[in-house]
Every structure is written in C-alpha cells, then in structure tokens.
Specification:
Layout (H helix, E strand, L loop, with lengths): L1 H27 L3 E7 L2 E8 L3 H19 L7 H6 L6 E3 L2 H16 L9 H7 L10 H8 L7 E4 L2 E4 L12 H15 L4 E6 L2 E6 L9 E6 L8 E7 L2 E7 L4 E4 L2 E4 L16 E6 L2 H14 L1 H10 L3 E4 L1
Antiparallel strand pairs: 1-2, 2-6, 3-5, 4-5, 6-7, 7-10, 8-9, 10-13, 11-12, 13-14
Bound molecules: adenosine monophosphate and magnesium ion (MG).
Magnesium ion (MG) binds next to helix 8.
C-alpha cells in the first residue's frame, strides 16, 4: 500500500514539476492569456512579448465594445436600434457597424444572396439561441418575403431601411471583424505575436514562441468530435482560419438535427453532405462572411467565390 502511495506521490511531484517548468517558460516569453464569453461563445485572446498584458486588456475591451454594438439580443445594441427602426428612418451608427455592413453587402452581392444579413427574420423563427423550433411552411414563406439586403441603404454613418419589417443579424460576420480589429490593437501595443479564438474564428500574427519555426498551427476541428480532435493542422504566419459548421449550433427534434446556417432562398438550414467549411484568408472579416456563404453555396460555387476573394476553402 505504502509502495503504491509512494509511486502516486512521485507521479504527482513529476506533474507539478512539469507544470512549473511550463508556466516558467510561459512567463519568460511574457505570455498573457484571457478568456471571456462574448458573441454568444467562448473567446480566448493570447499575446506574447513586451506589453502582452496591456495588449490583451485592450483587445478584450475592443471585443466587448464590438459585441455590445452588434448583439442582436441586447435592447441597447446598434443592431437592435436598426431592427426596431421604421421604414425610411435614418439610424446613426458607429464606424464599426458601418464597416461590417459594407463588407456584408459586398459579399451578399458576390455570393448571389447566399450570404445575407437580412436573413434575421428567418433565423428568429428557428430560435437557435433558445430551445429551437421548427417553423411552419407558411411562416417561412412570409419571412422569406422580408429577406432582402437591397432594402438596406447606407448614407454616411446612417442606416436606412426601406421597410420597417427588415431586420439584420450580424452573427455570421461580427466575430470576423472583431478578430481583425483585436489583432490591430495588439500590433499597435507592440507585442511580438498574438492569437485569438472567437468560437472557431482563429486570427493571428507575429511570432509564435511555442512553435519551432515561429509560425502558428491551427487545428481544424473534426465535426461532432470532442474539442481538440483535429482533421488537419494548418500552418500559417499571419491571417485567419475560420470555420462554419453544423455542429457549432443546432437543435435536435424527432431524431433530426437542425443547424443554424440558413439558405435565404429556402428558409431552411442548408442540407449538404459536408458538415463544415473552413476558410484560410488574410482577413478574418472576409473569412467569416465566406465560411457562411460557401456553406450555403456548396463546393463548386463556394470554391469559385473563395478564389475570387483570394481565400482557400475546405469542405468536410
Ligand atoms: P457562422 O457561424 O459564421 O457561419 O454564422 C452563422 C450565423 O450567421 C447564424 O447563427 C446566424 O446568426 C447567421 N446566419 C445564418 N444563415 C446566414 C446566411 N445565409 N447569411 C448570413 N448570416 C447567416
Ligand atoms: Mg461566418
């Protein structure tokens, strides 16, 4: 018995020593990591080098700010102000929201409407953020009639909807924009390298002190497998790796899974024989729009769209 306890003690000591060694190295590299819950998902920000603590703090502040402006569930967000405005009413919004909408409108056009932030009335009906419900065909037909991004006009920093019923949902694009902004903030703070994981949107730059050649290694999650089981590892120096997957948000009713990426043309969750789309791009904002758009478009049209925007796309 004592002999067994001795072994357990020795093993514990070894683990503690290893942990000590790890945290020491982590300190030597001036690494700082913070995890927060924003954009309805777990977000991790990690930076290395001088000022890493200050840089991570500033990045988290900016992420929080962008989340507050774009949160469709908050009664005070800019998106809610747009959604509750009357037709023809001009709503003044921040540069952040204007920049997101501008890129979203561009991708909507390039994807022939596969990506469409005015999909909100359809997303609402499915209640993915709540219990989940299957809307009737009539409800979907009615909501489809409201989905139309050309109803949204931008005049300077003002957003004008032509009809009161038009609503927007920035869930498919806000995390990408936030990733790019947070990286810029950390670059300005002078850190040597940084990486962010905003619920599957990975953005990074600079040197990774934890890899031999300094580059970043991003694992592409195996759909429906436990976190950490990877299909493939992507190695890149700077940019973004963004994945949209059916397993990220879905509900199950009568043995059928209903996931959160909606085809604006049918009103239903997109049905394909793949479960996720990963985009590798220099911009997380473009990658975020593209991952959702390519998921809707399918392999052939998705590859053409990604090519046209200088991004790589993988279907799994
Ligand atoms: P992502 O995880 O980036 O693919 O974004 C999915 C989220 O974007 C959903 O939870 C919805 O809020 C929203 N969304 C769903 N379908 C679309 C679509 N076709 N175009 C734009 N946004 C969408
Ligand atoms: Mg997206």
């Amino acid at each position: 018995m004592m002999k067994k306890l001795g072994w357990i003690f020795a093993a514990l000591l070894f683990v503690v020593m290893l942990a000590g060694l790890y945290f020491n190295q982590y300190d030597k590299r001036n690494g700082t990591e913070e995890t927060v819950f924003l954009f309805d998902t777990i977000c991790t920000v990690k930076a290395y080098g001088e000022n890493s603590k200050e840089a991570v703090g500033k990045a988290v502040d900016r992420l929080t700010e962008i989340h507050k402006k774009t949160d469709v569930f908050s009664k005070d967000s800019e998106v809610t102000k747009i959604n509750s405005a009357d037709g023809g009413e001009a709503i003044e919004v921040s540069d952040d929201v204007i920049k997101i909408i501008l890129v979203a409108l561009e991708i909507e056009e390039k994807s022939s409407g596969a990506f469409d932030i005015s999909v909100a009335p359809l997303v609402d009906l499915w209640d993915f953020h709540g219990e989940g419900r299957i809307p009737s065909a009539e409800e979907l037909e009615k909501a489809k009639g409201i989905v139309d991004e050309s109803e949204i006009l931008l005049v300077g920093n003002r957003v004008i909807k032509q009809k009161s019923e038009t609503k927007i949902d920035l869930g498919g694009v806000a995390k990408g924009y936030a990733g790019d902004v947070a990286i810029e903030v950390m670059k300005e703070s002078g850190v040597s390298g940084a990486i962010l994981d905003l619920g599957g949107n990975i953005t990074f730059f600079g040197t990774n002190p934890e890899s031999e050649n300094g580059s970043w290694r991003v694992g592409v999650q195996k759909p429906f497998a436990p976190t950490g089981e990877y299909e493939e590892i992507i190695e890149k120096e700077e940019g973004a790796v963004v994945t949209s997957g059916t397993y990220q948000r879905y509900f199950e009713k009568d043995g059928e899974k209903y996931h959160h990426i909606i085809d604006p043309k049918t009103g239903y969750p997109v049905k394909h024989d793949y479960s996720s789309v990963t985009i590798v791009s220099d911009s997380a904002l473009v990658a975020d729009c593209l991952s959702t758009a390519c998921f809707v478009l399918g392999e052939e049209a998705g590859k053409t769209l990604a090519d046209c925007l200088g991004a790589e796309v993988m279907f799994r």
